[in-house]
Each structure stands twice: as structure tokens, then as C-alpha cells.
């Protein structure tokens, strides 16, 4: 009998794997594929009538335009039979184009690549995009329309700074959030609570904002990117509920920061996270002192040395429920699917820590439909997991 149940479970799990590629139903969320990592190789430099480029074995990177006075820029999908996947640093900066067409092969828009294209009025970012890097569209003073994919995209520091598009979004809400990415909070004031739907915060999102006094970051945000709160001189408290990594310059020059609450899941603090910060803070760590000691961090950091420490192992973020987390380990993954599968086939000893988290159809019961939706959520989570 035990063998039969084990076989049934294996068959159910196999069915889940075989159908994992099925499309998500409308309204179940957005996702982003991980960034492609290309093997190091020496590119072949080339040029055509419009561009200079670098050709690799499997893709092309456009390095510079040949004419900055053209009114229309059309980036081809292929050059010499290879897909164009990347626009390089400064490639079209200060170009006079008013029209820009990007191909559906493009994955990376490089740093400063279209900055100060003052005649550019609109841009459609293709669904293939994975990363838009530092200040890619900075100072495009006529840019009023930006069409982004309906999913999470890694948007770097200050990508759309000084554009009418960003200014208009700020007027609608000082927290500018696009498909799960918080890209700007520089006009926020007072206490800031970032909603739990946010999964990514762009670097420098709040940089130099002197008017925020506190910030609460939900457990859905795992990485605090470079310079996120750089020179926020009025910031007195920060709670980072699920953060696993603190980047370069996150709290530099935040000289009033006296209350910091850090997740027990924290793994790394960059050498310069608290650089040039003269405050003396109380750091509450949601874990044991032994766990804190295992966090990779700079031993000589003056801010960390001055701080008073409180270790709170009992803290739980009750307001940050993870959908599908039926085993209550703080995440929704294959372990939850296996647990639900065991429960559905009546495997002896199966206990659901939070069955309501698995009731995805909201009909007050658990069945195969909930397992199917759970599988889709797990697939989505895998695809949108950041690779930066």
C-alpha cells in the first residue's frame, strides 16, 4: 500500500513537471527570465551603414551609431545572421532622433545609451528585455510615453531621470511602481511603507531625498540595491523585513539613522553599505546572535561598531503573507507543491501548516485546481528570480 501511494505521488509530481510550461492564466502575475550570461570571448568588430558593433558567436552588441543627426533610429533584430541582444554604453547618447524602434531580440539596454536624446517622444521596450541599465534614458526631455513589458524588469539606477514620463508618474503617486519594480521615490515625504507587491527596488530610488523620515521594505524585496537611500539625511529608521543582501552605499551619509531592523535571512552587507554614516543606531536583528555573526559584513565598519544590538528570534512578518506557502517557511516553492500533493492523496502524517495559503481558488477547500495554480506560481517565481 505504501508503494502504491508513493507511486501515485510520483505520478502526480511528474504530471506537474510535464505541464509546468503551460501559460499562466490572465491575472496571475508577471515574470522575468534571468539575465543571459555570455561566455567570455574576443568579439569581432564590425560596421554597416548605420552602426559600429561587436559580433560574438551567438549575439551582436551595437557599440555606437554612425550618425547622431538622424531623426529615426531602427535597431535591426539581426546583423550578419546573429541576434542583436544589447545596446552598449553611450551608444546613442545625445542623438537627435525623435523615433526609436527596438527589436524583439533585445535583452540589455546599456548605461547612458539613449541619454539626452532630447527629441525622443516615445519608446516601446520589447518583451525580450531583461535589463535597462544606469541612466539609459536620462535627460530625454521630450519623452512622455514609455511602454514597458507587462512583467518585472530589472530597471537600474535613474534610468528615466529628468523625463516628462517620470515626472507625470510622480504626480500620480510619489512611489513610482511599474509591474512590481519600484523605480523612483525621490518625491516621497515622511513615513514610507513600500507595498508588499513590490519585488525589486531600483538603485538610487530614494537617493538624496531629505524629506523621508522612515521606510518599511516588505519581505518580497530580497536585495537592496546600490545607493537606494544614499544621502537621505532625514531618514531616522529603516525596517528591511526579508532582505538578504545590502548593496553598495545603501545608507551612506544617512546621519540621522538611529533605528535599523534587519531580517534574520540577511546574508551579506557590502563593505560600503554604511560608509560615511556618523549616526549611532540600535540594530534589531530578527534572528540569533549566532546567525548575525554568520552574516558576511565588514569587520571594520564604524557604523556597525558603534551600534547597539538587539536580537529578536520571535519576530514574524504577519503582514507579508506568502501566497502558496502552506508549510510556512516564508517562501512558495516545490516543497509546498509536494506537501499539497501528499495531502491530496491522503499520505499518512501529512500536516498543512497553513491550508488557507494553498486555497488559491478561494472556494474554502483544497483540490487539484489549487495544485495546478500553485504549480504556476512556483514557475512564475522561478522565472522572475533576480540574477543580479
Tell me what the structure shows:
The protein is 17% helix and 21% strand. The protein contains 6 helices and 24 strands. It has helices at 2-18, 164-172, 289-294, 302-306, 334-344, 368-384, and strands spanning 44-47, 51-55, 60-65, 72-74, 78-79, 82-87, 99-101, 108-109, 122-124, 131-132, 145-147, 154-155, 176-178, 181-184, 190-193, 200-201, 212-217, 223-224, 237-240, 245-246, 259-262, 268-269, 282-285, 308-311. The strands form 6 sheets. Strands 1, 2, 3, 5, 6, 8, 10 and 12 form an 8-stranded mixed β-sheet that branches. Strand 2 (51-55) and strand 3 form a beta hairpin. Helix 5 (334-344) runs antiparallel to helix 6.
Write the SSE topology.
Elements (H helix, E strand, L loop, with lengths): L1 H17 L25 E4 L3 E5 L4 E6 L6 E3 L3 E2 L2 E6 L11 E3 L6 E2 L12 E3 L6 E2 L12 E3 L6 E2 L8 H9 L3 E3 L2 E4 L5 E4 L6 E2 L10 E6 L5 E2 L12 E4 L4 E2 L12 E4 L5 E2 L12 E4 L3 H6 L7 H5 L1 E4 L22 H11 L23 H17 L4
Average of pLDDT: 87
The helix tally amounts to 6
- Report how far the terminal alpha carbons are from each other: 47 Å
Number of domains: 3
Could you tell me the radius of gyration in angstroms?
24 Å
Helix content: 10-25%
Instruction: Estimate what percentage of residues fall within beta strands.
Output: 15-25%
CATH class value of the largest domain = Alpha Beta
CATH topology of the largest domain: Leucine-rich repeat, LRR (right-handed beta-alpha superhelix)
Structural class: alpha/beta
CATH architectural category of the largest domain:
Alpha-Beta Horseshoe
